[in-house]
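Sequence in, structure out.
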Amino acid sequence: MKSKSNGLAFSLSMVAFVISGCSQAGRSYDSLSKIVNEGDLSVAKAAAIPDDASSINIRSDAETGLYYVSYDTSHAVRYIDESGMLRVGKGLAPLIRDSLGFAAKLPPNIDLYYRCIISLAPLPDVRENYHEIIMMGSDGRRQYLWNRLNDGDLEAILCRPVGNGGRQF
C-alpha cells in the first residue's frame, strides 16, 4: 500500500514538473491581433507591445503578475523614449540580466534599459500598492521586456532616492 502511494506521489510530482517545464517555453504569436484572440491581452497591454510587433513570445505567471515578452518591432527607439526607460551602465548589466526569469536567455550584445514604477491603486488581491521595475533589452529590432514586483534588493540599487527624500519611480 505504501509503495502504491509513493508511486502515486512520484507520478503527480512528475506531471507537475512536466507541466511547469512546458510553460517556460511560452506562447508564440505572429502578430498583436492574434494575441487578442488567444487571451494574453493583459500581458500585451502591460508590456505595451506596439501594433507592428511580430514573432511575439509571451511567458507569464498570472499568480505573481510577472511576465517576459519578446518581439520584433521597428519602433524600439520610440518605446524607449516614450516610456522613460533609463539605460543600464555596464556595471549594472549583470544585475539586470540576473533578474530575468522564466528560464529565458538574452542575447549577449544588447542594450539594457529599465524604469521604476509605483502604483498606489488598490489591486484585487488586497495589496494597496506595489513597486514594479520594468526591464528591457533591445538590439534595435528585437525587444525583450520583463518585470519584477516588490523586489526590494533590486529596487534599492535601481530606484535611487531623490533630493526630496522620496524614490525615483
